[in-house]
Predict the structure.
Amino acid sequence: MARTWLLGIVAVAACGGHRVEVAPSPSPEAAIDAFMAAVAEKNVARMAQFWGNANGSAAETGQPPDYSKRMDIMLAYLQGTSYKIVGGAASSQAGSRANGLDTLRVEVSRPQCSAQLPFALVRTRTQRWVIQSFDLAVVGGLSRPCAGKTP
């Protein structure tokens, strides 16, 4: 009986909860760079380390419950693109970074076109920056060009 109890404790300890080791992102720019590098590598698990909300990355929190599916969709839209951070968004308020929020304009390009889209970023409780949102429709998909300009 004591042996069964000990095996149960070992099994629970081995599970370790939902803790995920995530890479640092000390600035909004670093979060975008790491996210887009993960896109280039087609690594959705790594993408989830740099996308989330103020509570943490999707990889850390497991939220939203369908985050894995969202990463797959983002990868489908973004694979084969290049990017360049071109500056803060026109709507970005001075001092917002100090308050844990930032918006950066990112030019995303593929052979057919390029488009600028705002990436909204938030600083997490652990002082990491993650991407909170951006508009995939602006980028377009493989079957249609983006809504931006043609190079």
In short: The mean pLDDT is 80. The first helix runs from residue 2 to 15. The first strand starts at residue 52 and ends at 53.
